[in-house]
């Protein structure tokens, strides 16, 4: 049984009938590193303490076989199952599990996430207070194509992958692949939708969710990996179309943006569901990024965050500005509904502005 997670059980059962048994090996090792960071966001750029230490633990592995395959990665939590497709279809696909936490008795728990190739998943908070190798158990093993396999687990979340032979896949633009329609025609609707559409998303574990209020809390260094994973999940498609994606450059640039912004984590019903970055610029408040996990979009969370920023701008008597990708008309329509106006347009972005009194 897979976590007693109905969606993963339906996925495994559907693929089991379709995919013949072919072995895939998985070999991985743990590594750890330490970082010294500012104790609070207000210290950024000062060069002065106090400082705290962050420990990063990563399990890096390779999935390998004698045939080419595509990989889907899943992060299962008590509320959601997040999923993402690796763009690489190959006979060798890297996977990674990571945990980040404060050392010793510093405040905060751990952030847990995983990825397959460039299939990033959001980070989720997990309890710590123990050595990280005890918080997360990785399971190197021999996998079977078309079978959902758990590679790592904590007490609050688990990381799964499933490998699909190239013969079942149709690869489209930007290396986005999907299971061929004729192969998935008999699958349950939710399984068919995940396998044949999109690059990433989330499905509910079947619980009825209450509408809860959202709040912003200051981000800390332990949030970096989960925020960058969400940045990749939400914005990668547009960045690829405009500039192309260089993983090292994107990570370094995102870290620079975090360091030069006021960065907050969006909490909804106690879960970290997104982040927002702002900074002051020439008499205005500029929104650098707002990112919300796909499973929590269209619930009014983004609107609530924008209204909070608008209240701050109105109290200070300054405009609120941001830029949206020209490849993202949905975002432009959203901000227009919140009272923003387009005031400039370029190949890589549409400049938008909100004022308390137009």
SSE blueprint:
Elements: H1 6-18, E1 23-38, E2 51-76, E3 80-85, E4 90-102, E5 110-116, E6 119-120, E7 124-126, H2 132-135, E8 137-138, E9 142-144, E10 149-153, E11 158-165, E12 169-171, E13 177-179, H3 181-184, H4 189-196, E14 200-204, E15 214-218, H5 224-242, H6 247-259, E16 262-268, E17 271-281, E18 284-292, H7 301-316, E19 320-324, H8 329-337, E20 341-346, E21 349-354
Parallel strand pairs: 18-19
Antiparallel strand pairs: 1-2, 1-9, 2-3, 2-4, 2-11, 3-14, 4-5, 5-6, 5-7, 8-10, 10-11, 12-13, 15-16, 16-17, 17-18, 19-21, 20-21
Account of the protein in words:
The chain has 358 residues and is an alpha+beta fold. The protein has two domains: 199 residues, no CATH class; 141 residues, 3-Layer(aba) Sandwich (Aminopeptidase), CATH 3.40.630. The protein is 24% helix and 42% strand. The protein contains eight helices and 21 strands. β10 and β11 form a beta hairpin. It is globular and about 65 Å long. About 2% of the residues have low confidence.
Notable traits:
358 residues; alpha+beta; Aminopeptidase; twelve-stranded antiparallel sheet; seven-stranded mixed sheet; 21 strands; globular
Q: Roughly what is the average pLDDT, rounded to an integer?
A: 84
| Secondary-structure element order, N to C | HEEEEEEEHEEEEEEHHEEHHEEEHEHEE
Number of strands: 21
Uncertain segments: 206-212
Strand percentage, roughly? Answer: 35-45%
Which word captures the global form? Answer: globular
Query: Percentage of helical residues?
Result: 10-25%
Instruction: Report the end-to-end length measured between terminal Cα atoms.
Output: 58 Å
Query: So how many helices?
Result: 8
What's the number of structural domains?
Answer: 2
Structural class: alpha+beta
Integer-rounded radius of gyration: 21 Å
Largest sheet: 12 strands, antiparallel
């Amino acid at each position: 049984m897979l976590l007693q997670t109905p969606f993963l059980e339906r996925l495994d059962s559907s693929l089991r009938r379709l995919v013949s048994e072919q072995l895939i090996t998985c070999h991985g090792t743990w590594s750890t590193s330490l970082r010294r960071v500012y104790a609070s966001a207000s210290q950024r750029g000062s060069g002065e303490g106090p400082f705290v230490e962050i420990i990063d633990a990563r399990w890096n592995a390779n999935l390998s076989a004698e045939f080419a395959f595509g990989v889907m990665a899943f992060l299962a939590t008590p509320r959601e199952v997040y999923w993402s497709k690796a763009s690489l279809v190959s006979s060798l696909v890297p996977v990674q599990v990571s945990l980040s936490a404060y050392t010793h008795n510093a405040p905060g728990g751990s952030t847990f996430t995983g990825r397959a190739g460039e299939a990033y998943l959001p980070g989720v908070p997990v309890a710590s207070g123990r050595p990280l190798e005890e918080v997360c158990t990785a399971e190197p093993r021999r996998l079977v194509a078309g079978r959902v396999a758990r590679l790592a687990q904590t007490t609050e979340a688990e990381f799964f992958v499933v490998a699909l032979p190239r013969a079942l896949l149709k690869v489209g633009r930007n290396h986005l692949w999907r299971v061929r329609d004729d192969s998935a025609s008999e699958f349950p609707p939710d399984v068919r939708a995940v396998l044949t559409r999109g690059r990433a998303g989330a499905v509910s574990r079947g619980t009825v969710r209450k509408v809860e209020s959202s709040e912003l809390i200051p981000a800390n260094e332990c949030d970096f990996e989960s925020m960058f994973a969400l940045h990749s999940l939400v914005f990668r498609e547009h960045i690829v179309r405009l500039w192309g994606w260089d993983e090292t450059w994107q990570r370094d640039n995102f870290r620079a943006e975090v360091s030069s912004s006021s960065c907050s984590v969006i909490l909804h019903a106690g879960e970290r569901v997104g982040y927002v970055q702002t900074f002051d610029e020439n008499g205005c408040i500029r929104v650098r990024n707002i990112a919300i996990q796909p499973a929590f979009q269209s619930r009014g969370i983004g609107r609530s965050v924008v209204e909070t920023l608008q209240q701050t701008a109105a109290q200070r008597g300054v405009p609120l500005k941001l830029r949206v990708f020209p490849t993202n008309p949905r975002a432009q329509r959203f901000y227009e509904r919140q009272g923003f106006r387009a005031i400039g347009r370029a190949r890589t972005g549409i400049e938008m502005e909100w004022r308390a009194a137009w």
